[in-house]
Automatic annotation (TrEMBL):
GO terms for molecular function: RNA binding; RNA methyltransferase activity. It comes from Phreatobacter cathodiphilus. Keywords: Methyltransferase, Transferase. This is 23S rRNA (Guanosine(2251)-2'-O)-methyltransferase RlmB. GO terms for cellular component: cytosol. Belongs to the class IV-like SAM-binding methyltransferase superfamily. RNA methyltransferase TrmH family. The lineage of its organism: Bacteria, Pseudomonadati, Pseudomonadota, Alphaproteobacteria, Hyphomicrobiales. Residues 44-117 form the RNA 2-O ribose methyltransferase substrate binding domain. Coiled coil: none annotated. PANTHER family: 23S RRNA (GUANOSINE-2'-O-)-METHYLTRANSFERASE RLMB. Residues 1-29 are annotated as: Disordered. Pfam families: SpoU_methylase (PF00588), SpoU_sub_bind (PF08032). GO terms for biological process: methylation; RNA processing.
Amino acid sequence: MTTPPPKGPKKPFRPFSKPGKPFKGRGGRVLREPAPEFATGTVLLYGWHTVSEALRNKDRRIRLLLATENGAKRLDEEGIAHQATIVPVRDIDRRLAATPDAVHQGLFAEADALDPPHLDTMPAEGVLLLLDQITDPHNVGAIVRSAAAFGVKAIVTTNRHSPEATGVLAKSASGGLEHVPFVTVQNLSRAMTELKDRGFQVIGLDSEGETDLDAVTLREPVALVLGAEGKGLRQLTRDTCDTLARIDMPGAIKSLNVSNAAALALYAVTTRLGLRR
C-alpha cells in the first residue's frame, strides 16, 4: 500500500485586492472601508420591505447598509435615499449565516432601535394590542404586520418573555416595525389596569371565552389581549380583562394560529368601530 505524500503548507490567505487598492464588487463598483461586525445592541434588518421602510423612516438611524447591485438599483428606482455599500451577495449571506433560510433580497442593515413610547403617553383612542408572553418571533412579526395594516396605535409587551424587535421578527413584520411602536412594561396585568383606568375596553381573546367577539358591545378605545400559542392567556391576565371573547369558527378546526387570530380580530373590531374608513 502506497503511503500518500505529506501535505504541503496551507496557501496563505489572499485578499480580494492588492494592498493599498480598493476592492471592486461585481460591476467594478468600489467598496468603501470594510463593514464592521455586528454592533452590540443594534437591530438587524434584512429583506426589501423591512429595509426600504426603515430607510423611509426619518426616526430610524441606520448604522450600516449593505446592498447587492440589484438591491441598490431597486432602491434607486424607488427613489429611496441611501448610502449603501455595494457587496457581492455572499457577503450578506455570511452576515446571516446564523439565520437559516433568511431571504434578504440583496439588502441588509444594522440600525439603532427606535425609541419606545411610554404607556402613559399613548392617546386613549383607536386600538392597542397587548401580547401576553408570545415569544415566537415569526408570530410576533406577523402580528406587527397586521397591526400596521389596521392602524394599531401600539403593541404592548413585557420586558421579559417577548422577542426582540430584530432579525426574524423584523423580516416577518415586513416593514411594520416602522409604523407600530412597541411599548414595553414590567407587568402586563398592571398595564391593563392602567389602561382600564384611562377608559380602554380590555378584551382578552380566548378560545373558551364566554361570548363571541362579534357579540361584544364595543367602545373606543379598545385594548385586545393575545396569549401565547398553546398556553393562551395567563390566569391573572384573564382575570384583569373586562371581557373574554372567542372567535367562533364554522369549520371543523375551532382555533387559529395567534397571528391569524390577531388579524381576524383586528378586522372585526376596526370594522365595527368604523376605524377602517
